[in-house]
Design brief:
This protein has one domain: OB fold (Dihydrolipoamide Acetyltransferase, E2P). The protein has a four-stranded antiparallel β-sheet with strand order 3-2-1-4. By secondary structure, it is mainly beta. The longest helix is centred in the middle third of the chain and has 7 residues, at 40-46. Strand 1 and strand 2 (22-29) form a beta hairpin. The chain has one helix at 40-46; strands at 7-18, 22-29, 32-39, 53-58.
């Protein structure tokens, strides 16, 4: 699949918290943690669970950089 997003971070799901409408997906990417809120339906349809290897695809108009 071709995507215009240039930031692809491969990681492993460490936690899935299902809410009423949304799901909080936590991934470990190297030494870092990335969290994503997606619809509960999407999480269920994808069968996302702890230990799954996934890729976070990020396309944002703002990415802040901190030095030091």
């Amino acid at each position: 699949m071709a995507l215009s997003a240039r930031n692809h971070l491969k990681g492993e799901i460490t936690e899935v918290i299902l809410g009423t409408v949304t799901a909080l997906i936590t991934l470990k990417v190297g030494d870092n943690i990335v969290e994503s809120v997606i619809t509960k339906r999407s999480a269920e349809e994808m069968g996302l669970k702890k230990g799954d290897k996934v890729t976070a695809v990020i396309k944002a108009t703002e990415v802040m950089i901190q030095k030091g």
